[in-house]
Design a protein that fits this description.
The protein is of the alpha+beta class and 257 residues long. It is built from six helices and 14 strands.
Length: 257
């Protein structure tokens, strides 16, 4: 099974890129999407079914939105849950489903805007509630994966210029501490299970030719429970999709189980 996570930054705009990827030989079996920016009645179920994929989704107009798409031959998704019961939130940032025995969680973490801001406090509270929620989920589902745009670069090697970003949003001590707290639940950063090229990033600003200069950050992650990480065989970042016309500012991350 190949799992992937991709912040599409508008599924309406990026749907042709997604469908083309699904037609490739190395297409994932399950893809967690973030920032779909679609209300549920506008989700492209028909186009995805024609490509051989089913979907569960949780969206809103203009902002946020998450989804899980998966090969139809994997069977139906069960125990679909939208949002976190322990953290009432009007923003569509979390969806989970069990597919082929694996609990798949697609998450779009808050950006936080700036250290010390109200949105930063919301981000940390959101992550604390996620930690509590996943602690319960892991007791129910030993095979669990948390996939998505975390809006956190866990280490300095995940940043093109650590000095420039030091202590700032996406890289602050509190955000990294919250990331480490998730790991402490028994999860593993799948990207770091294997040797990776230096300066491997998943997000690049649209401005200042950031992608061409590889001025990026690795803020998109797939965390695996112990049972899944023991069966992981490879992982990487699909940079090719960032090179396409009208790309998302994120490239998908993936892992093979």
């Amino acid at each position: 099974m190949r799992l992937a996570a991709w912040n599409v930054n508008s599924l309406k705009v990026r749907l042709p890129h997604l469908l083309a990827w699904l037609a490739e030989d190395d297409a994932p079996d399950i893809i967690c999407l973030q920032e779909t920016k679609l209300e549920d009645h506008n989700f492209p179920c028909r186009e995805l079914r024609e490509a051989g994929f089913d979907s569960v989704f949780f969206g809103q107009k203009t902002y946020n939105g998450v989804a899980i798409i998966f090969r139809s031959d994997l069977g139906e998704a069960s125990d679909v849950e939208k949002g976190k019961p322990c953290f009432p939130d009007p923003q569509a940032r979390l969806i989970a489903a069990t597919i082929k025995g694996v609990r798949v969680v697609s998450a779009y973490f808050p950006n936080g805007e700036a250290v010390g801001s109200e949105k930063y406090a919301y981000k940390l509270a959101w992550m604390e509630a996620l930690h509590q929620h996943l602690s319960d989920e892991l007791r129910r589902f030993p095979d669990l994966t948390l996939c998505g745009d975390f809006n956190i670069a866990p280490e300095d090697r995940d940043i093109h210029d650590p000095k420039r970003w030091e202590g700032g949003i996406l890289c602050s001590d509190a955000e990294r501490g919250a990331f480490t707290s998730l790991i402490s639940l028994g999860l593993t950063d799948s990207f770091r299970l294997f040797d990776q090229p230096p300066k491997s990033f998943s997000w690049w600003d649209y401005r200042q030719f950031s992608f061409q200069k590889n001025m990026g950050l690795r803020i998109d992650h797939i965390l695996l429970s112990e049972s899944l990480s023991a069966r992981a065989t490879n992982s990487g970042i699909k940079r090719e999709l960032r090179r396409l016309p009208r790309p998302s500012d994120h490239a998908p991350v993936w892992v093979e189980i």
